[in-house]
């Protein structure tokens, strides 16, 4: 026991926390490097790093073409500061891991290259600006890549990698699609080119091969349907067959196959990544075990004592309650031996990732202050009333009536005054609930709807009061305040969803797969940012937007004579431009929905189409092709689909089941209904600081509930998704294939580790 | 043995063939009913039935509003004839199955109701027409339902059933989507309604709640993006957030969840259907076994002798070659006992469904006629040249050069004459191949590309000759002939695909899942037909199309003053109308791609939107909602995806593997490369009429190849799709759960069956 000192615990806790969060950093194991590594993983530098990346990315708002113009020296100074922060972070990282590992990692090389290029670009740009030459800040395109590489964006990098690996397979389908496109275009040229047909603008129809290829490509995206077909269809009904066949083959059948191949490959590589992840996790836990292990008896298997285990868990997760830790120990040490073997120890990382809600039963504070009143018959009756099903139904009806009132004209005084009534009713509901339920339980971390209700109602109350105060003090009404009031009122209606069980299931599932969806959100931001930077350089100032009250004659053609009389100007699309980063982002979202580019090829050159086709091909699934029905979102859809199935199904992982069994065994389970009503009426208890496996039994006031389907990390969700597909060997020992995977004390070969 | 007579064989063969094709008809087992049933399943009445359904459906071409007008009495006479045919078929069916079964089947009731309603409608319509009143042939909507119910459209009915069963689950997600739509609309009304904004037409923007709901619904289909957002976006950039949020939540996240739930449920019910199918198949085979079984030894297991088995298979599939039948027997009777038990017998239905290509090795006919010449050194060299890889590459290059020439202007005499050169080259290729390969092998049933090549080249030759003949005899050139020539020329280029292995894999996969896709094609036809009939009644004649040379001023507004100055008329969409069934179908395809209805609500009433929204919701996945990215095709995409995975993967079913093993054991396997080159150079042999398991061994000239991934029936593909998911019990005995599922002679409990 004496051999295990403080730095050993530091080392073991790093291994465990790396396993828990799936960090794959090969740090030095010298005590000095371990301390540095602990500092590297501290939340403060990580948050700071994210802040500086955000600052770096948002510089685009202030740089030419700017939303809020700042002098060049100011933005460049801020960027220099960001670069220094990134460099410091990188140096810190270099000190943590062995030198050869550092230079072998392409991630680090990538960061160094980006930092170098950005510096070079800034110097050139500054010099050119100083000599009044035209200069382009091309290194801005590289900024989002820092988001991918500097941060611990494992999910992001993994998504990139999976997409890259799936590329070759996908490329063949893409080629076949291109072949089909070219063949159809050739046929269209031969059939329609010589008929002297005209498009709606009077231009010759289908006479230029490249134009045809582009038009038919756009038809796959359905953006120019049915316009592209009308001249031919008007000439002869028979040509409709050509276009219907084209849409059937290229838009529907082909793109389905495309989706199939993309999805299949993407999933395959993601599965391989997850398999490696599980192996790496196990490996780290085995190392942690090797640090803490001790020999209980001569020739016996090495074990970790409960005291050491407790100290380790306290280091890894200081915020874990003692009772929760004891529960985890009793799951690991199933047979009450006071120590656990390697197999049980290795589970720790996964056990820590299962979110267990600890409910402390406290009496209502009013009961403490004035028990005679709170426990009186009328008070008890009130409590029963509020907890009754009818209470929920009454309030659902009130919300529905409120919805009708919101829809009516709010300038009618009756309607606008009724708002006060509804606000009072909602406030009353919250106060009643606070009277009945213990406030800390009511506002616990997992009571999403309680928080939602209270914030919305209180905010609406404040906004409404400000609004009427402004109204009564002079006739001035702030449009902004009024907008906020309206939004809050409408948001309140969402509460109805929570009352219908099926709806709640769907919404909860969505909330749970949120983090996974956010990963793809980041991916989209990276691609959008790059395209916005490039688009701004190419198209900035080509299309101008004039305010509604402007009388400039150029307003009719967006300030660009090339757009005179074009649909782009006629439909008033002038604000769809690349003149600043916000407009660019809005425009890119529009392009994601329907890819239209006619306006921009007119103001620049036909070849500008390349930009739009590229965007159409590249967006979210990144380089993953996909020219489909709504191509850019296929991988996204596929992922949501997969994650949704896993979440929607009732199955639980083995580990969760065993944890739940233990909770039930210890009679600490919270009945489902009880938890949902936040009904905690038992007496308060004090956490004991130390205890054996049995001690938890003596705490009837403390209850556990597994938030069974909530995952701390996206990795855990991914692992669940592929659990059925993974080989059992991935979970087993890699260094000892004969070892059984369940039960403690059964691995005699491990003393050598 | 003597107990088994002819009618027993008839009965057993019906059971087997019902199992093979998954027919689920509970026919009487009396010899008379069996004979009627055999006639019912004959191909001639079945084909006739399909012809009459086709005639019935195509009547829409000749009825008001007609493409080719026929007098009412003519179409009604034809329809009457069709009804009589359907009635006869139904009576035949009623004679085959027990009376109580007939009246319990909703399918039959459905047919009787449709026939009755159609008769009533025809009488009313005739009477009204005779008295010159306005009459509507409403029963035309019912016609496609006959396609579903009269024919043995099992796949179609199964798809309908699966969709119907999945409805309740899907309904909840749809409700939640509607709730979200209503909430967003309310917010839009409150935020934008009072700002006095105008749309591009000068109409007030977002002031009417129902209009907003409809506009935002259309935004989900992305059809009116970005127009619907522009007025708000032009007023303030901040409103872009509202629309982006809306698109993100409703178009992307929500619809992904939608797809997930629809797909999950659809798959679940389809799986259940397939499970029942497998059970029913097994049950039928057990009955067939019970008819033919005999007791070899006292107390032993009942078996079927080889002679009886042979006679049965000959009855079930008369076109099966003797060698093929012997192969199947040797797979069933693995241990050469001369008889097989129940377990081996039950496999027969699946064995018959595995397509085995029998290659008979024949010498080239020229070798027979003139062996000295054909086997001479130059002739052999030529054969080697043609079979060389370079030959394929040379011809691929020729095709590419040809593609460039096609793209060039064909009025240039050099170009138009070059066509003769290319034609000659292609003809030469075919002749050379015919010289090298045995013609019957070259034109075998499975040589898709050989057939394709020959037909295209010969047709192009004929068309080109006709074309130049017409050209030289006077300057008249038929546009039709020229079009055909062009199409054939371009189609020839597709051949390149066959040379690249990866492309071939993809194309072959597509061809293989074709039948399954066609099932969904039928489903779409049913829905389109119903919508076309309704649409024609509502919208016929409201929008008129004028030929290009017409000088009628009404041409500018499609003959309907309500359309004056609308985008519909400006974009020349007049031919998109419901004036006849062909136009309706083309328009419905356009609506499937992009659902636009502005023109039609103008010429009738705003409530006409209901028709278009309904179409958007209902199409292919039928009632299956789905208001998605490209909603109508989701189930289709999902199905293609699933089928594609199964086909694309290399795994084979167990039965196929055992059949292949047997073929290899008997040394009759064709090497993969050999088959692909159609290289059959061995000597011809004569089929022996009878033989033992070993007799196949003495036929070195006969080779087998499993067309391993081709399925005779869609059911077989479905069974494959869910093979991994089905319980082993589904394949096992239902009446004897303890029976092993593999190996012969192992089921002692079966003598009681």
Automatic annotation (TrEMBL), chains A, B:
Transmembrane segments: 43-62, 68-88, 109-128, 170-191, 203-220, 240-263, 390-408, 420-436, 448-469, 481-497, 509-531, 581-603, 610-627
Composition bias type Polar residues, residue spans: 741-753
Record's subcellular location: Membrane
The keyword Cell membrane belongs to this UniProt entry's keyword annotation: no
Gene Ontology CC: membrane
Entries under InterPro entries matching the protein: Ion_trans_dom, Volt_channel_dom_sf
Occurrences of domain Ion transport (ranges): 47-269, 391-620
Keyword RNA-binding attached: no
Keyword annotations: Membrane, Transmembrane, Transmembrane helix
Domain of life: Eukaryota
Region (Disordered): 728-753
Entry's Gene Ontology molecular function annotations: monoatomic ion channel activity
PANTHER family referenced in this protein's UniProt entry, alphabetically: TWO PORE CHANNEL 3 (PTHR46726), TWO-PORE CALCIUM CHANNEL 3 (PTHR46726:SF1)
Name the UniProt record assigns to this protein: Two pore segment channel 3
């Amino acid at each position: 026991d004496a051999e295990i000192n403080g730095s050993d615990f530091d080392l073991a806790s790093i291994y465990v926390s790396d396993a828990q969060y799936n960090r794959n950093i090969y740090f030095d194991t010298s005590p000095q490097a371990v301390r540095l590594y602990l500092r590297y993983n501290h939340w403060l530098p990580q948050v700071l790093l994210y802040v500086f990346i955000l600052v770096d990315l948002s510089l685009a708002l202030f740089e030419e073409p700017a939303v809020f113009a700042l002098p060049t020296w100011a933005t460049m100074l801020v960027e220099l500061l960001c670069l220094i922060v990134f460099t410091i972070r990188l140096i810190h990282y270099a000190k943590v891991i062995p030198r050869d590992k550092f230079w072998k990692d392409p991630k680090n090389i990538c960061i160094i290259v980006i930092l170098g290029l950005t510096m070079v670009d800034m110097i050139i740009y500054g010099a050119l600006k100083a000599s009044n030459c035209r200069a382009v800040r091309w290194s801005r395109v590289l900024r989002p890549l820092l988001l991918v590489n500097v941060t611990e964006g494992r999910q992001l990098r993994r998504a990139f990698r999976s997409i890259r690996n799936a590329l070759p397979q996908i490329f063949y389908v893409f080629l076949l699609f291109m072949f089909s496109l070219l063949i159809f275009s050739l046929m269209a040229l031969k059939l329609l080119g010589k008929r002297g047909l005209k498009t709606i603008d009077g231009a010759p129809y289908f006479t230029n091969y490249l134009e045809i290829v582009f038009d038919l490509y756009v038809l796959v995206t359905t953006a120019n349907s049915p316009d592209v077909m009308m001249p031919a269809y008007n000439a002869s009904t028979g040509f409709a067959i050509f276009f219907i066949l084209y849409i059937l083959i290229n838009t529907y059948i082909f793109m389905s196959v495309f989706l199939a191949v993309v999805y299949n490959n993407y999933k395959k590589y993601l599965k391989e990544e997850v398999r490696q992840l599980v192996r790496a996790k196990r490996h780290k836990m085995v190392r942690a075990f090797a640090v803490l292990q001790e020999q209980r008896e001569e020739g016996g298997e090495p074990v970790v004592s409960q005291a050491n285990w407790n100290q380790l868990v306290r280091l890894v997760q200081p915020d874990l309650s003692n009772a929760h830790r004891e529960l985890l120990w009793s799951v690991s040490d199933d047979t009450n031996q006071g120590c656990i073997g390697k197999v049980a120890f290795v589970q720790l990382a996964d056990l820590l990732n299962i979110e267990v809600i600890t409910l402390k039963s406290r009496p209502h504070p009013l009961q403490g202050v004035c028990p005679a009143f709170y426990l009186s018959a009328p008070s008890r009756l009130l409590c029963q009333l509020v907890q009754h099903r009818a209470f929920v139904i009454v309030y659902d009806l009130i919300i529905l009536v409120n919805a009708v009132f919101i829809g009516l004209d709010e300038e009618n005084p009756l309607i606008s005054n009724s708002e006060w009534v509804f606000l009072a009713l909602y406030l009353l509901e919250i106060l009643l609930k606070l009277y009945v339920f213990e406030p800390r339980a009511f506002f616990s971390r997992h009571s999403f709807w309680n928080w939602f209700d209270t914030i919305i109602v209180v905010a609406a109350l404040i906004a409404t009061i400000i609004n009427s105060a402004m109204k009564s003090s002079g006739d001035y009404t702030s449009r902004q305040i009024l907008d906020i009031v309206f939004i809050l009122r409408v948001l309140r209606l969402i509460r109805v969803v929570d009352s219908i069980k099926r709806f709640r299931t769907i919404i909860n599932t969505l909330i749970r797969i949120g983090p996974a969806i956010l990963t793809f959100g980041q991916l989209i931001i990276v691609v959008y940012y790059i395209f916005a930077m490039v688009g701004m350089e190419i198209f900035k100032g080509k299309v101008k937007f004039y305010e509604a009250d402007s009388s400039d004659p150029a307003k009719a053609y967006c300030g660009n004579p090339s757009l005179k009389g074009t649909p782009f100007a006629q439909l008033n699309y002038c604000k769809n431009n690349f003149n600043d980063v916000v407009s660019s982002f809005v425009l890119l979202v529009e392009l994601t929905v329907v890819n239209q580019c006619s306006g921009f090829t007119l103001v620049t050159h036909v070849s500008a189409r390349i930009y739009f086709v590229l965007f159409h091909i590249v967006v979210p699934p990144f380089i993953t092709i996909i020219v489909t029905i709504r191509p850019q979102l296929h991988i996204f859809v596929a992922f949501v689909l997969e994650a949704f199935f896993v979440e929607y199904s009732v199955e639980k992982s083995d580990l969760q089941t065993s944890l739940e069994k233990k909770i039930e065994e210890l009679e600490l389970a919270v009945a489902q209904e009880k938890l949902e009503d936040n009904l905690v009426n038992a007496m308060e208890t004090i956490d004991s600081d130390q205890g054996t496996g049995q001690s938890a039994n003596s705490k009837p006031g403390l209850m556990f509930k597994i938030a069974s389907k909530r995952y701390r990390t996206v990795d855990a969700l991914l692992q669940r998704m592929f659990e059925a597909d993974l080989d059992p060997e991935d979970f087993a020992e890699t260094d000892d294939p004969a070892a059984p995977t369940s039960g403690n004390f059964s691995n005699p070969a491990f003393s050598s580790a």
